[in-house]
Amino acid sequence: xxxxxxxxxxxxxxQGHEELRAAPVLRREQLGDPLIKVLDGCSVNDxxxxxxxxxxxxxxxxxxxxxxxxAVREYTNEPGQPAPAITDATAFPRACSVPVAxxxxxxxxxxxxxxxxxxxxxxxxxxxxxxxxxDGRFEVKVDWSTADGxxxxxxxxxxxxxxxxxFTFFDPNNWEMLIKVLDGCAVNGNFWVYSAAATDLGLDxxxxxxxxxxxxxxxxxxxxPAPAITDAAAFTASCRP
Length: 241
Fold this sequence. Notes:
The protein is mainly beta. Helix content is 5%, strand content 44%. It contains 3 helices and 19 strands.
């Protein structure tokens, strides 16, 4: 994966957690960004799918290669534009006819933690579907919804880092959303919320600063791919003196 900002360019590293998923990193290793998935949709529409999401406005080029057939798919984002979710359910149409012997006997792979968050010492409690970030100060809750009226709470993925975490909606091995709360106090006097979801489901995201009770919310209707959220003014009164 290549990344670009104006006239600068570079290559993202990758954190591999299973054969069909990787999380290249654009800036700092602990952020785990972006989230990329290759899903086996052969039983649904005879294709392998590529889903991806990034919490960035950097330009990038993502290249996915099917090493069995030689087919290649490339996805790009121009610098300065919040990255849209990639939900390509027709990425590799011929891949289903290629046998993959290793998949038949492979046991399911549980999600691997990205790291260890610092111990919570603030108001957020790691219970149920709540995700605690920034030393337990910020509580994140996510609900999903479908166009036909189904809905439910997202489940957090074990592990994560002090300022970022992952959520799943249905399958614990299928990571759907990455969210971060970043300390931007030294930059613009705010805490920032960055998020990306590789989905076209509806989303209701709530982030609460348990020290001040300030709440940040985001709602997306089912249908269109989820855009990247890059809100550098999410919590304007949360920086400590």
